[in-house]
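Sat 14:20. Reprocessing the chain from the morning session after the first attempt stalled halfway. Input below, unchanged.
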Amino acid sequence: MKNLLLLSMIAVLLIFYTIPWPVEAAEKPQSSFLTEGTHSLIWGEQSDYVKAGIGYFVSWGSCSWTISFPDQNGRGKSVLDYNRIDRAIPYLSLSLSHPNGYGALNVLYGKGQGGNGEGFDSDYRAGGLEQRSKMDVSGETIFWIIDLETAFSSTSRPRWVIKPFLGWMHYKESMRMTNGTWTTLSGVATNVPFAGLDSRYDFTWDALRIGIKAQRDLFHNPEGKNQALSLKSQLALLPYMHYQGRGKWNLRDDLKQDPSFIHEADEIGVLGVDGSLSLVYRPLKFLELEGGGRIFYLYAQDGQDSTYFSNNTTANVTLDEAKAFRVGFFLQLIGRF
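Finished this time. Tokens:
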């Protein structure tokens, strides 16, 4: 289901960017980029100096990691899955722009908590499931994004604007695991609670962002009218990713120190996406209301797991992959100055 949502969002964003929106000929071709005399795109746009917003992101997420290691039966594997990681995340946004839109700095910060999630810790030996435990999961999501962008706008009406950008994203999921139950032991299905579980794990992602934003007015308002409605989208690809996972297991005496293990991976490639699609309503010159959907997907592979034991020894095995996914709906109020 989550893969279907991801693909659907990406498809909608790509369609939005590739639609051949009709535009009128430029009135001032000497300051425009022309295409056969019928399309005009100029650098910059009329912009507010400052935009400050407050919003709410209601979302659903999941995270997982997989490690593999040699054992007496060939190769073993451990998988930790977190599902139904629901969050209601308030966030703040700030944009500082050149008045002609030649450059802008955008900052977004969000932080929210939630519970009622579900986790599974699974161990495989010789290709088969040996043991699995189920647990309750609560925790916190934090993300911040900083982008630098420029703008190109049409001279046609209704107006449309495209904004290439380069930025950085930090995304963190912190998990607390309690109320454990064995669902498989020695390959046999069971349902046996165990007491005392109070373990933690943090997923931390830092990524380079390269992408494009687009906005198109849906109506051409006469001069002096403020009631504008526009369609807005963004699509950011993540070509560099640094991932770190940090865990503390409290039930094993040899792993009770903090951290019990650390996962790390550095990757180059298309390793994730941050996309959004929204409607913007401007009832007043200084006020906007924006609502829509947003999706995060982050991926890393071929990293290292370092497990730290209480006797001061360390074991290093392979981190096969780590993933994080979050999708939901947002609503924000923006002041324009």
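Residues 1-38 have pLDDT under 50 and may be disordered.
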